[in-house]
Design a protein that fits this description.
With 121 residues, this protein is of the alpha/beta class. It has a five-stranded parallel beta sheet with strand order 2-1-3-4-5. It is globular, with a radius of gyration of 13 Å.
Length: 121
C-alpha cells in the first residue's frame, strides 16, 4: 500500500483550512490556525508538504519559513497561498525564495498539482 502524503495546512481562516484539507482527500492532512501551532507540529511530525497562508496575525507564513533551520528539508516542501495584496516585506521575501505561491481563490486541481509538485511526484 502506498504511503499517503502528509500535509500540514496553516491558515488563520477556518473555512480555508477545512476546504483545503477536503480538497486533498488523497493526503493525510493536519490543520492548524497559526504559525506557532505549525512549529509545534513540525517539531514532532515529518511532513511531505506544508501549505501555509502568507498573511496571518502574530507570525506570517514568511516568518514561519524563515524560522526553519537553513538546512531543513521542509524549506523545499513549502507551498504558500495568499489572497489580496501582499505587504512589501512579504513581496521582498518571495522575490528571494523559490517557494511556489497559490493565489486564492484557486481551483482544486491547481492545489492538487502544486502539492504533487512540491512533494516530488
Amino acid at each position: 500500500m502506498e504511503a499517503r502524503c502528509r500535509v500540514l495546512i496553516v491558515d488563520d481562516d477556518a473555512s480555508m483550512r477545512i476546504t483545503t484539507a477536503a480538497a486533498l482527500e488523497h493526503c493525510e492532512a493536519q490543520v492548524v490556525a497559526s504559525a506557532q501551532e505549525a512549529l509545534a507540529h513540525i517539531a514532532v511530525t515529518d511532513f511531505d508538504v506544508v501549505i501555509c497562508d502568507l498573511v496571518m496575525p502574530e507570525m506570517t507564513g514568511a516568518e514561519l519559513y524563515a524560522s526553519l533551520p537553513q538546512d531543513s528539508a521542509l524549506r523545499c516542501r513549502f507551498l504558500f497561498m495568499t489572497g489580496g495584496a501582499l505587504p512589501v516585506a512579504i513581496q521582498s521575501f518571495l522575490a528571494l525564495t523559490s517557494v511556489p505561491v497559490l493565489r486564492k481563490p484557486f481551483q482544486v486541481n491547481e492545489l492538487r498539482e502544486a502539492v504533487r509538485a512540491v512533494a516530488g511526484g
